[in-house]
Structures are given as C-alpha cells and as structure tokens.
Amino acid sequence: MTSFGHSTTTDEVLADCDLTGLTVFITGANSGLGQETARAMAAKGAHVVMAGRDQGKLDDAVTVIRAAVPEAELDTITVDLGSLESIRAATSRARQRFNKIDILINNAGVMACPFTHTTDGFEMQFGTNHLGHFALTGELMPLIERGTAKRIVNLSSRGHHMGPVDFDDPNFVHRPYDPWSSYGQSKTANVLFTVGLEQHFAVLGIHAYAVHPGGIETNLGRHMTQEMREALMARISSRDTGFAWKTIPQGAATSCWAATAEELEGKGGVYCEDCHVAEQDDESASGGVRSYALNPSYAEQLWALSEELTGVKYPS
To answer: First vs last Cα of the chain: how many Å apart?
Structure first.
C-alpha cells in the first residue's frame, strides 16, 4: 500500500527514482500539470519530450524548467490533438528524432468548452481528449515498444462520474450538446482507452494507467463562465464534503506515481487517484471509478469506434 496521498507532491513521489536514460513524452507540457510533470521528471534525469500546440509557449516552458533544473534534457514537438493531419506529422517527426519512448503521458485536454468541432469534424472534447490521444498513441507505439519502462498514462478525471460513452452519438449529432456531459464522456473514454491498451498490449509488457489528478486551478477551466464555475462548485461541495483543492505539484503527483511506481509493475488497466489504485464504486461522489469505465466490452467497442473514426490501426 502506498504511503502517498492527496497532498503528496511530484518531488515526493519521485524522491527515490533515478530516471536517467528514460525518454518521457508528455502532451500539454507547455503549462499546468504537464509542465510540472516535465520539470519533476527532468529533475530526476529523464529525457523529456514536451509536446504542445504552440512552439512559443513550449519555449517559454522550457525556459522556466531550465531555470529550476539547469541540467534538464528537454526536447519540444508541436502537435494539435484536434487535427489528425497534425498528429500524423508530429508522430512522423518523433519517429525520426527519437529512438524510443519509455513513458508516454497523455496529459493534454480541454474542459467544458462551447459546442465546437475538431479539424476532422469530431466534437471538440471527445475529439481532443480521447480521439486525439488514441491516434497519437497508435502512431507512437513503435517507439513505445522499443522502450524499457513501457508505461502509458492517460489523464482522466472524476468527471467520468458524469456519464458513460454514448456509442450511438459520441459527437452530439442527434442529442443536445451539454458541455459537462461531453466532458464526462471524454473522461470515461480515457479510462476505457486505458483498459483497451492493457487488453491489447499487456502481452508485450506495455501497461496503461488512467489518472485522476484531483481538483486543481489550471487553465483547463478557461472556457467556463462564472455561472458554470459556481454550479460546478455547488455540485462538488454538495456531493463531496471533504473536497480540497490541490496545488499543481500535488495534482501532477499521481501522474508521476503511475509512471514510475514499482508496485504497479505488470498491473495496468487501472484508474488511479491520490497516488493509489482506486476501487470500483458506482455510488461514491468523493472517489472511486465507475464500473462502466472499466467494462472490457465497452473498451473494445470504443477501440473499434476509435479506429474507424481516426483511421489509425494499432500494430497487432
């Protein structure tokens, strides 16, 4: 049982880790949780590839990290997870530039945005949070297979409690759009993708972990109106009386833990929160993972749908 918990930080999780020689690829690494994960892992010797949409913001993040960790080994790569063409171009460059990826952290995401679409016509939250990472991971799989750690971390959220994936209408073509239903669906998809990766690739020693970072004030909530913020906080406080905000180093800790913890070796396909593996729970509002998010048949259904929508075929 881990001694870590809600208030554990990235540096505390990685205190006894030596990541020298490992290559870590992190999406959304230009700010917030992704930037902190990159800093913490670079401080322990990892070669960190920081991915994001904007080269200028990535350069700024590199400057900030190097100020804290002068010896940091950092690379950057631009990718827009809302564009399959951008993902293909970025992953092609990655396969040319890097020999392997030991740890992939699918950290980037959008939350509660207005009803918009990706370049390829997918609803923005499902398209970015799930389909973009599904496509990216598939294209990077040859590098992951050549890694030694062979771990994939997918950032999910307790938002998955808001509902399952609507396989009949994932892109809100026929049902009214609701930003929270969409966000919840995308976060459930992140867990199901984790289960699917485990089902397909555990035999190759590749293991996947879904992570709920906790409640953190980052730019993820930039699309929320004041009314939405107040409604969300009312919902949280009425259902989870013990809720407490986390700092960014506390929020990124579970990602670092899932990526490195020895007790997780060979045990993927799980959902982690507060630096431990969460129990399946269909009732609690304050923790746990819903059974529909761990359902293996739903995971296979989502996998087939994602391959169909993105055109990405994973190595068999």
So the answer is: 35
